[in-house]
Amino acid sequence: QFHTIKYEDLKWDESLGQGSFTRIYKGYRTDIRDGEKHCTEVLLKELDACHKNCWESFFESASLMSQISHKHLLLVYGVSVHGEKNIMVQEFVKYGALDLYLKRGKTVSVSWKLDVAKQLASALNFLEEKNIVHGNICAKNLLLAREGDSSQGISPFIKLSDPGISLAMLGKHVLLDRIPWVAPEVLISSENLTLECDKWSFGATVWEVFNNGNSPLKGYNLKEVPKRRFYETFQRLPPSQWAELADLINHCMDYQADFRPSCRCIIRQLNSLITSDYEILHSTEPVAQ
Ligand SMILES: Nc1cnc(-c2cc(N)nc3[nH]ccc23)cn1
Question: Is the confidence metric ipTM above 0.90 for this complex?
Fold first, then answer.
């Protein structure tokens, strides 16, 4: 159900780090299309051979993303199997993961952050219409294709990455590590992974974007209190001063899954967030008049 790519058509460039059970590299893929030779920048995601049993989940996540196409969903070109190696070949997104981009201290405007939230909401709306659950929405899985430039009125452009190996395949500890992105009901059983879970994760991701990529539970004293207590005591993430934004985030992160808003409702609420007054009232950087 997805394209297989010949190993000899791939060339490895620099290593870009690793995900859970995967190593990622920048690379190039040569292919012949309408009689011409093309060389495309790609991201190569290698699955560790020791996690062989995860490979069908690894490929499932690839096939999920290659079945559908949307401007804010990462393009997966296909997979390549070479001996012990399973490699997913994805489009290369220039500026990489959004959490690292924000952590690098790039100051971005409120409208820049809202644009990112709206683009993620439209990707989620597309998945909801196809009844496809992503299962791993977070700023680390948002890739920045265009930085945008607030002064020129050029908006950023993000692409939602593949969910990676499914939650069902991952151990309990990985689930605990995904607090507060993973919906509480999924912690009880990964059978509870539904479209509503993506709404919860959307709320946590919008919180990250408006808190410059800071990890939501950074202050939480993880030593004494296990992360699970955050859910057991129905805690919330620290609210933004922007009341309407805090409401939207808390509405998405409702402990009652069926109380969470539909994507259309989320998009409507995002569009009703007026940046002008918030920006002027709360902005640290002077707003261009
Ligand atoms: N599909 C993807 C995923 N990640 C990237 C990427 C880009 C970059 N500039 N630095 C990176 N560092 C780690 C990953 C990465 C690109 N494309």
Answer: yes
